[in-house]
Amino acid sequence: MTAEVTRLAGHSLAAFPFSPAISLLLVEDQKTETRGAPTMLRSDRSPVVPSSRSGLQRAGRALAVGGCCLLLAAGAARAAAPNLVANGGFDSSLAGWDLALAPNSAVWQPTDAAGLVGSGGVRLVTSVFQVSIFKCIPVTAGKSYVFGASTWRRTPQDPDGIAEAQLSFYGNTSCDAIDLPLAFEISAPATSQERWIPIAGVANAPPGAQTARMSLVLRKAGFPNGLMSAWFDNAFAREGNCAPGANTLCLNDGRFAVVATWRTASGASGTAGALSFSDDSGSLWFFAADNAEVVVKVLDACALNSRFWVLAGGVTSVKVDLLVTDTRTGVSRIYRNPQGTPFAPIQDTSAFATCP
Ligand SMILES: [Ca+2]
């Protein structure tokens, strides 16, 4: 049995596949082995480039001996809601992206938002007002689309500006003739810090729309002198209504929204930070982004028992209210952990009777 070890915030996950349907997932804090990539800086204040998986592999061996926490999770097929943005992860190049509006400004770099080895991102740099890269994707009028990317801005030494994702709809198949009004535009805040920040929005394709131009944009606020740069990764656009954000996980191909609130015994409280882990799972943090408190996943088990399942495990004893919403139907489920109680595993295999 071979463990697949991956990193989650400041923790490590080791997944032991027992069978195609069942896996054993070990979670352990391995800060000394794996922490830091999302927040470390190089001397030039750009995102850290992952170097190897050796640290994760060492963590995996440690887990095999003494993992602290245990989740038993059943795997199931996911409903397909494909990412319409091909090469949105910039694995090895900028292939498929139109660079016409970013002359000499877009460069592929081996810097990945999730710290993955073998996948990179794109750096945009500009001395002028605005540059962007874009591609044309097919859409269906009347359908809702969630879109976005991860961004890294150099602040505060760069000129003021924003890094944003845009989706604009067109009434033809090539995104270049009848320009319908810009239907939606989203942006990362100009005060964004030097870390990867997910940005996302939801847009409805207007009547007559056949395509949409998906753009990653770097724009100065006004016309200050100097170079401004930003990194982008994990661009996406897919059918759906859930917009992932700093406090929202969108799971099962962007269909289920997960948000949580927490409160300590001394009265401190807040909304949990959200870190996406995969299309099906993510983590929630309360006190620091590298200190995961709850891991949650939503699985499509429609073929097994005509339900979507909600599974979660926590390493906390504070009060937690976990809200999961099927954004396609509006149906919600809430899971509560009482104050001062070790977080009880959630294995709700009848959570949502909203198939397909
Ligand atoms: Ca990437």
Write the layout of secondary structure elements.
Blueprint: E1 4-8, E2 11-17, E3 22-29, H1 31-34, H2 54-66, E4 69-74, E5 106-109, E6 121-126, E7 130-138, E8 144-153, E9 161-170, E10 184-185, E11 197-204, E12 211-220, E13 228-239, E14 249-251, E15 256-263, E16 269-271, E17 273-276, E18 281-285, E19 292-301, H3 302-305, E20 307-314, E21 319-326, E22 332-337, E23 346-352
Antiparallel strand pairs: 1-2, 2-3, 3-4, 5-6, 6-13, 7-12, 8-11, 8-13, 9-10, 9-12, 14-15, 15-16, 15-21, 17-18, 18-19, 19-20, 20-23, 21-22
Bound molecules: calcium ion.
Residues 89-90, 112, 119-121, 233 line the site of calcium ion.
Outline the structure in words.
With 356 residues, the chain is mainly beta. The chain has 3 domains: 1-74, no CATH class; 106-239, Jelly Rolls, CATH 2.60.120; 246-356. It is built from 3 helices and 23 strands. It has helices at 31-34, 54-66, 302-305; strands at 4-8, 11-17, 22-29, 69-74, 106-109, 121-126, 130-138, 144-153, 161-170, 184-185, 197-204, 211-220, 228-239, 249-251, 256-263, 269-271, 273-276, 281-285, 292-301, 307-314, 319-326, 332-337, 346-352. The strands form 5 sheets. It has a 5-stranded antiparallel β-sheet with strand order 5-6-13-8-11, with no helix packed on it. A hairpin with a 5-residue loop joins strand 15 and strand 16. The longest helix has 13 residues, at 54-66. The relative contact order is 0.14. Residues 89-90, 112, 119-121, 233 line the site of calcium ion.
> In the CATH hierarchy, what is the superfamily of the largest domain?
Galactose-binding domain-like
Class inferred from helices and paired strands: mainly beta
Mean pLDDT: 79
Q: What is the total number of structural domains?
A: 3
User: Over the alpha carbons, how many angstroms does the gyration radius reach?
Assistant: 21 Å
How far apart are the first and last residues' alpha carbons, in Å? 33 Å
